Amino acid sequence: MKITVVGTGYVGLVSGACLAEMGNDVLCLDLDPEKIRILKEGGIPIHEPGLDQVVARNVAAGRLHFTTDVQEAVQFGTIQFIAVGTPPDEDGSADLQYVLSAAKAIGRHMTDYKVIVDKSTVPVGTADKVKAAVRAELDARGENIPYSVVSNPEFLKEGAAVDDFMRPDRIVVGAEDDQAIFLMKALYAPFQRNHEKLLIMDLRSAELTKYAANAMLATRISFMNELALLAETLGADIELVRHGIGSDPRIGYHFLYAGCGYGGSCFPKDVKALIKTGADSGHNLRVLNAVEDANDAQKLVLVDKVVERFGEDLSGKHFAVWGLAFKPNTDDMREAPSRVIIAELFRRGATVTAYDPVAMPEARRVFGEDARLVYAERPMQALDDADALLIVTEWKEFRSPDFDVIKAKLKSGIIFDGRNIFDPALPKKAGLTYLSIGRP
Ligand SMILES: NC(=O)c1ccc[n+]([C@@H]2O[C@H](COP(=O)([O-])OP(=O)(O)OC[C@H]3O[C@@H](n4cnc5c(N)ncnc54)[C@H](O)[C@@H]3O)[C@@H](O)[C@H]2O)c1
Ligand SMILES: O=c1ccn([C@@H]2O[C@H](COP(=O)(O)OP(=O)(O)O[C@H]3O[C@H](CO)[C@@H](O)[C@H](O)[C@H]3O)[C@@H](O)[C@H]2O)c(=O)[nH]1
Questions:
Q1: I want to staple 338 with a disulfide (CB 3.0 to 4.6 A). Which of 39, 134, 168, 324 is the partner?
Q2: Best residue for ligand 1 mutational test, from 72, 265, 362 (most atoms within 8 Å of Cβ)
Q3: Measured between alpha carbons, how far is 247 from 159 in angstroms, rounded to an integer?
Q4: Nearest-angstrom CA–CA distance, 225 and 185
Q5: Distance between CA 283 and CA 271 in Å, rounded?
Q6: Which residues take part in binding NAD(+) (predicted)?
Q7: Binding residues for NAD(+)
Q8: In 3-state terms, the chain is what percent helix, strand and coil (to 5)?
């Protein structure tokens, strides 16, 4: 099948590469000439394990191409995936300007039947807006070319994106006409081991499903984070509680890890957008408001613990921070807890040496030139002259350190672990004070 992907960011590139891997001819469009230049020269603008091989293989096979030419891109694919960003607007709602401008471009240049697929995360009712935007462009041209609009939200996780796309738990397709349903079924046939994975529904239910999934996952995390704080006060261990409740299949083990808050390009923005959708339609989504509040507070929990030990004023104190990305296996720092933690340490007068296996170039962009923040080449080097260590991202390479070396380096001998990555007995055996989330 011939497919165009409009927007070659995270989701666009992973989707385009994986759809090519399944034998389709894919043309990825982006308006950012720098991104397309990197891709055309064989580079990958994001860090995502395994993606480079899939891209290289399909470029070499002649199935995956990149362009900045809008007209060429629109005329290429029968299926047009819109995978552009939907960042939060000032009031928390999803900003649809990129989606609608992509839709208009399709209406402006299409010359034959198109299935226009919203893959971006978009609020309920967006498919109707996309339909209207395309119709307005066709009317302006005096054309009446047929087209369908489909909602096909994406559920991939960064760091595991290729696997999530190629082996999905489910594929949600919101569609309202037989031709579009037929084409979407044919497109996804090779992706499914069993047919129950393809869930065909109406457009609005598909749009809401995406927000419901992220909101449910964010709720589990905020719930566990609050219980972790309670566990600390009560002298219980949240990790044992997690095992205790996760063994109930109605609850399950996934997404129950307490930590220093959820970040990333999706949960924070999608929870906000769903709250706004609720408010706009007369529903105060109380649970989700609390989920967001709890997460905002949780991002500061490590600093609260630092303040308990070192006092409100941290002038003259220096901290090592391990982990900058919002989670392991990505260089993405969008809404990362590290941003809030480091900013709060600065506000209180402290300085920081940070280490992250892949996100340091991104951190340089995020924080800019700032004398209060330097970067280490290795995790242990970050500990030089540090009063204490803060662990913010659970990268594998942090999991088995030499605790005696940490003890020798840290002035206070304190580790503040925001991701519960160690068995507490090990740092304690080396004489360190180990403060994690929700554990005695
Ligand atoms: N990042 C994720 O893990 C993830 C997972 C599932 C769903 N989503 C959703 O997918 C959407 C895209 O997210 P992302 O992280 O890939 O965004 P991104 O910011 O990485 O990429 C968006 C790209 O779209 C391009 N673009 C904008 N307008 C364009 C236009 N009119 N024509 C062509 N290109 C255009 C931008 O230049 C950019 O490269 C969002 O709605 C997001 O919520 C993201
Ligand atoms: O038990 C857990 C699991 C995750 N997190 C945090 O939650 C955030 C998000 O993690 P994750 O969901 O793994 O990453 P994303 O790549 O943001 O993926 C989410 O957001 C995507 C964009 O919508 C969806 O497609 C995915 O299904 C959804 O998991 C990160 O900060 C994690 O540290 C926790 O604190 N505890």
A1: 324
A2: 265
A3: 26
A4: 40
A5: 14
A6: 30, 35, 86, 121, 158, 269, 334
A7: 30, 35, 86, 121, 158, 269, 334
A8: 45, 15, 40
Probe target for ligand 1 pocket from 6, 10, 35, 330, with the most ligand atoms within 8 Å of CB: 10
**Residue 35 is encoded by which pair of tokens?**
């991104």
Q: Whose CA is nearest to atom 28 of ligand 2?
A: 157
Please report, in tens digits, the pLDDT of each residue of the chain (440 residues total). 999 999 999 999 999 999 999 999 999 999 999 999 999 999 999 989 999 999 999 999 999 999 999 999 999 999 999 999 999 998 889 999 999 999 999 999 999 999 999 999 999 999 999 999 999 999 999 999 999 999 999 999 999 999 999 999 999 999 999 999 999 999 998 876 666 789 999 999 999 999 999 999 999 999 999 999 999 999 999 999 999 999 999 999 999 999 999 999 999 999 999 999 999 999 999 999 999 999 999 999 999 999 999 999 999 999 999 999 999 999 999 999 999 999 999 999 999 999 999 999 999 999 999 999 999 999 999 999 999 999 999 999 999 999 999 999 999 999 999 999 999 999 999 999 999 999 99
Annotated binding site for substrate: 155-158, 210, 255-259, 263, 327
Distance 51 CA to ligand 2 centre (A): 19
Q: What is the ipTM of this complex?
A: 0.98
* Residue 155 CB–ligand 2 contact under 6 Å: yes
Instruction: List domains and CATH numbers for the chain.
Output: 2-201 (3.40.50.720), 216-435 (3.40.50.720)
Bridge partners for 173 per DSSP = 200
| Closest ligand to Cα 101 | 1
Tokens of 338: 């590290």
The residue type at 103 = A
Burial class (CB in 10 A: 0-12, 13-18, 19+), 298: buried
Task: Ligand 2, residue 394: give the atom nearest the CA.
Answer: 33
Global pTM reads 0.96
> Looking at 18, 28, 260, 266, which residue is catalytic?
266
Question: Which of 274, 327, 338 has most ligand 2 atoms within 8 Å of CB, for mutation?
Answer: 327
